Amino acid sequence: MTATSIALFNNKGGVGKTTLAYHLAHMISRLGRNVLAVDLDPQANLTSVCLDESEIEALWDNSSELIAQEAVEATLPGVGRVRDDRTVADAVRPILEGTGDVALVEPVSLKPGLWLLPGSLDLSRFEDKLSNEWFKSFAGDIAAIRTTTAFHRMVEHAAACVDADIVLIDVGPNLGAINRSALIAADSVLMPLAADLFSLKGLSNLGPTLREWRHNWRQVVLPQVPPGISAPPPR
After folding, report:
1. Of 12, 57, 126, 146, which has the fewest Cβ atoms less than 10 A away?
2. What does the pLDDT look like over 126-184, one tens digit per residue?
3. How far apart are CA 109 and CA 204, in angstroms?
C-alpha cells in the first residue's frame, strides 16, 4: 500500500507547524499506524525536537565528500537507535556536486511505528539548484527532472523501507524552491494557522501559488517524465 503524505505549511512562521508535525506523528503512531516524519525545513527544527544533541552532532558531522550509495548502519553509544548517519542534505549532495543522482537514505527509528528522515542546515544549499532546474524541467531536461523529483523519490524510498502508512513532511515558512519541490511531492497540504491577520495573509498567498505550481507540474512537466523516474502525480 502506498503511504499518504501530508506536508505542514504556512507562509507565516511561528504558527506551530513543527510542533503539530511532532505531536501528530506520535499520536498517529499510537493509533497503530506506521508513521514517517520528514524534515525538509533547512532550519531542521523537527530533527532538533526528535533527536538529542549527541545524535544530531553525529548526523551533522559528515564530510562534504560524496556519500556512498550503500547505507552504513551504526548504533549510537548509550542510545540504541540504529541508523546510517545520513540526512536529507546527504541524499541530495550527489546532485549538488554533479556526481550522481539522489542517494537514498534510511530513516531513523524513534520508537516502534515511528521513524524520522532527519533534516540538516546544509539543505539550504539545494535551494539555488532547485530554482535553476525548475524551468529546465519544463523543456524535458532529464537532469532537471531528476533534481526536481529528488525529494519525492527520497521520501518514497524511506516510506517503503518502513512500510509507512502516513508521511508527515515539515517545511519552512517561505515560498522558495525547496518548499515548491516538497509541496508538489505531498498528497495533501495541512496549513496550521494562528488567530491573527498575518497567518490569514500567509494562507491567501499560498493558495494561488500552490495551484500554479501543481498546474505547471501536471500539465507541463509530468508528461515529459521518463518511465524510469518516479514522479509525484500532484493530485
Report:
1. 57
2. 999 999 999 999 999 999 999 999 999 999 999 999 999 999 999 998 889 999 999 99
3. 37
Cβ neighbours, 10 Å, residue 24: 17
Residues 6+ apart with CB under 8 A from 1: 165
Measured between alpha carbons, how far is 56 from 75 in angstroms, rounded to an integer?
A: 13
Q: Is 192 helix (H, G, I), strand (E, B) or coil?
A: coil
Give pTM, 2 decimals: 0.87
Runs of H (alpha helix) within 75-123: 88-97
Length, in residues, of the chain: 235
What is the model's pLDDT at position 84? 60
Query: What is the model's pLDDT at position 141?
Result: 96
Instruction: Give mean pLDDT, residues 188-207.
Output: 82
CB atoms inside a 10 Å sphere around CB 2? 11
Per the structure, the complete domain to which residue 104 belongs is given by: 4-224
Q: Which domain CATH number covers 39? A: 3.40.50.300
CB neighbourhood size of 81 (10 A): 15
Q: Is residue 11 part of a domain?
A: yes
